[in-house]
C-alpha cells in the first residue's frame, strides 16, 4: 500500500520530530478502537487512556494529516452557529448545557499543552474584526450572549483601539477574546500523539479503516489487519469517505485555502499585528490570519464546496491578503495548501451512537480546533456511562442535504454565493 505523506504546507515543513509509526499488520484486541488521528480522535484517546481504557488509534495517513494539521491554527470559542441560534432550535435547557461547554475546548487545549509540555507556539488573544457597523452590532450582542454563559475575557474595540492591534484600515471595530489564541496545529496534534503513547496507547499510521463489522464486539478492518474492540469511535470527519454511509449523507467535505509568506522580519511582522493576536473578520465567507513564531504571515479564506483542490491557491488568497495589508505586495509566498473540513446543513456538529457501541463526532463546520477537543472529552464521558453532555449534542436536529450527495455541492455553493453578495454589500 502506498505511503501517504503530509501535504506540502508550512506546518509540515516546520513540524517537530515524530517517530515513525507502523501500519497495522495482523489482529489486535483493545477496549476502544479510534478511527482517525486528528484532534477528535487524539482528544478522545487521551481522555480514555487517562481513565484507564486500553486504546488503539487507526490513522489512514499520518497523525494530523487532515484538517487538524492544516488549519489556520486559531483557537476560536463557541460553535459555527452561536448559542442563541441553538437556543431557538432546541430550547433553554439543552442550550444551557451546550452554552456551558462552548468555551471548554480552548481550556482543554491549554491544559494539554501544560500537562504534557507540548511545544506548539501557543499564544493568547484572538480578534473578531468588524468591517461594517452591522457586524459591530453583532459583536456587541455576541459579547452579551457569551457573558451570560460566564465567559468574561472579552473587550469591545472601537476603530482607534482595533488599529492598535491590527494595522489594517478595513475595520470599524472588533472584539478581543483573550481566551482565544493560536497554535502550530500540526505540532499540537503530534504532541497529543506523544502523550497518548506515553500512557500506553497505540497509534497505527497508514492504516485506513476499510470496514466496520458491527455487533456486540465490533471489528474494524484495515488492509492488513483488524482490531477487535468493545467500542469504536469514528473520528474521520472530512476524510471518512463512505466508511459509514449514514454519516456521509448528512455532511459535505469543503476545502479552505491557506498561504504563508516568506519570513517578514521582526519589524514588518510586528507592525502588522503588534500584540501577536490572531484575527478573523466577521464576514460569512471570512478571512483569517496570524503570525508564526518565525514571523511569517499565515492568511486563509475562501471555501471550495465538495473539497476539490483549486489549481492556484495563491491566486485565490493573495488578493485577500493584499486588501488587508497592501504593504505586503512585494512579499513572496513560500507555501500554499488546502485542507478539508466537514460542513453540516445546520452548521452544528453531529454527535451520536450507531447501535450500542459505535460512537461518532463530525461536522465542526469550520470551528474544529476547540470543538474537537471538547468532543473527545464528551465521547470519553459517554463511554464511561456519563451521557448527559453527549446527549445534549446527540439531540441536536440534523438533516440530509437536499437532493442527496448529487446536489449537496451545488446547493451549498449557491448558498455561499448568496452570502458572498451579502458580505459584499454589507447586509
Automatic annotation (TrEMBL):
Molecular-function annotations in GO: oxidoreductase activity
Pfam families for this protein: DAO
Gene3D superfamilies (alphabetical): D-Amino Acid Oxidase, subunit A, domain 2, FAD/NAD(P)-binding domain
Entry keyword annotation includes Oxidoreductase: yes
Transmembrane segments: none
UniProt keyword list: Oxidoreductase
Source species, domain of life: Bacteria
Record EC number: 1.4.3.-
Residues in FAD dependent oxidoreductase domain copies: 31-381
Record-level GO cellular component terms: cytoplasm
Entry keyword Protein biosynthesis: no
Classification via PANTHER family: GAMMA-GLUTAMYLPUTRESCINE OXIDOREDUCTASE, SARCOSINE DEHYDROGENASE-RELATED
Name this polypeptide is given: Gamma-glutamylputrescine oxidoreductase
The gene coding this protein: puuB_7
Amino acid at each position: 500500500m502506498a505511503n501517504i505523506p503530509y501535504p506540502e504546507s508550512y506546518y509540515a515543513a516546520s513540524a517537530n520530530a515524530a517517530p515513525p509509526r507502523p501500519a497495522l499488520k495482523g489482529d489486535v484486541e483493545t477496549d476502544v478502537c479510534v478511527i482517525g488521528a486528528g484532534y477528535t480522535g487524539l482528544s478522545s484517546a487521551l481522555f480514555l487512556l487517562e481513565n484507564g481504557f486500553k486504546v488503539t488509534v487507526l490513522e489512514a495517513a499520518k497523525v494530523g494529516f487532515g484538517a487538524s494539521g492544516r488549519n489556520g491554527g486559531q483557537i476560536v470559542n463557541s460553535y459555527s452557529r452561536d448559542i442563541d441560534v441553538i437556543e431557538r432550535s432546541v430550547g433553554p435547557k439543552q442550550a444551557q448545557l451546550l452554552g456551558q461547554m462552548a468555551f471548554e475546548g480552548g481550556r482543554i487545549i491549554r491544559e494539554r499543552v501544560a500537562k504534557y509540555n507540548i511545544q506548539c507556539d501557543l499564544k493568547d488573544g484572538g480578534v473578531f474584526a468588524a468591517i461594517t457597523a452591522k457586524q459591530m452590532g453583532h459583536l456587541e450582542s455576541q459579547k452579551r450572549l457569551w457573558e451570560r454563559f460566564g465567559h468574561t475575557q472579552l473587550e469591545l474595540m472601537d476603530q482607534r483601539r482595533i488599529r492598535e492591534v491590527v494595522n489594517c484600515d478595513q475595520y470599524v471595530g472588533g472584539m478581543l477574546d483573550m481566551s482565544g489564541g493560536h497554535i502550530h496545529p500540526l505540532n499540537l496534534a503530534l504532541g497529543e500523539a506523544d502523550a497518548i503513547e506515553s500512557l500506553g496507547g497505540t497509534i497505527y499510521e497508514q492504516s485506513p479503516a476499510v470496514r466496520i463489522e458491527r455487533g456486540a464486539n465490533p471489528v474494524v478492518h484495515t488492509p492488513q489487519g483488524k482490531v477487535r474492540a468493545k467500542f469504536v469511535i469514528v473520528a474521520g470527519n472530512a476524510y471518512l469517505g463512505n466508511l459509514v454511509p449514514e454519516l456521509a449523507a448528512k455532511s459535505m467535505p469543503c476545502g479552505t485555502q491557506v498561504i504563508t509568506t516568506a519570513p517578514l522580519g521582526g519589524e514588518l511582522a510586528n507592525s502588522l499585528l503588534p500584540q501577536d493576536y490572531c484575527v478573523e473578520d466577521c464576514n460569512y465567507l471570512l478571512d483569517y490570519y496570524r503570525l508564526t513564531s518565525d514571523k511569517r504571515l499565515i492568511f486563509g479564506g475562501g471555501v471550495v464546496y465538495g473539497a476539490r483542490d483549486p489549481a492556484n491557491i495563491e491566486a485565490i488568497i493573495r488578493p485577500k491578503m493584499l486588501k488587508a495589508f497592501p504593504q505586503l505586495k512585494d512579499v513572496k509566498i513560500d507555501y500554499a495548501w488546502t485542507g478539508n473540513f466537514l460542513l453540516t446543513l445546520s452548521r452544528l456538529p453531529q454527535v451520536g451512537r450507531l447501535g450500542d457501541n459505535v460512537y461518532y463526532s463530525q461536522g465542526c463546520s469550520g470551528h474544529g480546533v476547540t470543538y474537537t477537543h471538547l468532543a473527545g472529552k464528551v465521547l470519553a464521558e459517554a463511554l464511561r456511562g456519563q451521557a448527559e453532555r453527549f446527549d445534549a449534542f446527540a439531540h441536536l436536529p440534523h438533516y440530509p442535504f437536499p437532493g442527496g450527495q448529487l446536489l449537496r455541492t451545488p446547493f451549498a455553493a449557491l448558498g455561499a454565493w448568496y452570502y458572498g453578495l451579502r458580505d459584499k454589500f454589507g447586509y
